[in-house]
Amino acid sequence: MRNVLNYCLITTFLALSIIHFYWSAGGSIGYYSSLPADENGNILLAPTTVDCILVGVVLLLFAIVYAQNPSNLNFKILKYFIKFGQWIIPIIFLIRAIGEFKYVGFFKEVTTTEFAQMDTLLFSPLCLGIGCIGIFLALKNPKTIDK
Predict the structure, then answer these.
(1) Which of 17, 25, 84, 144 has its CA 20 to 30 A from that of 52?
(2) Where are the membrane-spanning stretches (predicted)?
């Protein structure tokens, strides 16, 4: 069960990473519906190519965190990095799912924009799923750093 959930997270992070690299290369499919907008439809973020690349790299690192088994690593600092990542990543996504209460998350006020609809149907549930699976895996991981 843990392996299946682990592979789900790895696959999800790889897919999200590829999407961000696609956007950084000039791709536009899904790009504008992924940007928060105000009530008048004005986009609130203007990510640059570098921003998309950075997010893609971070998501790729998240996939690597879940692909590694801390007990197989020789360097203690890497073990701490992986174990820390296995806790901080789901917390980040749970916070994202809750949102900032105006434009993003389950409790947002603006609900009529294309982004708000996609956020309700896909983005926030995905973040909640990643967060819950990540917490479950972190709690169920029997391996400790000292082993």
Answers:
(1) 84
(2) 7-23, 43-68, 80-98, 118-139
Cβ burial, residue 75 (10 Å; 0-12/13-18/19+):
exposed
Closest CA to 67 of 133, 14, 136, 126: 14
What residue segments make up the domains of the chain, in order of their start?
A: 1-140
Q: Which pLDDT score is estimated for 143? A: 57
Instruction: Provide the CA 113 distance to its chain's centre, in angstroms.
Output: 22
- Using CA atoms, how far residue 34 sits from 17, 51, 74, 121, in Å, is 14, 14, 40, 12
By the 8 A CB rule, do 52 and 24 touch?
yes
Residues 22, 17: Cα–Cα separation, whole Å? 9
Number of residues assigned to the chain: 147
Sequence letter at residue 56:
G
Instruction: Average pLDDT across each block of 10 residues of the chain; the chain has 147 residues. List them in order.
Output: 92 98 97 94 95 98 89 76 93 97 94 96 98 95 55
- List residues bridging with 37 in a β-sheet: 43
Residues 20, 55 contacting (CB under 8 angstroms): yes
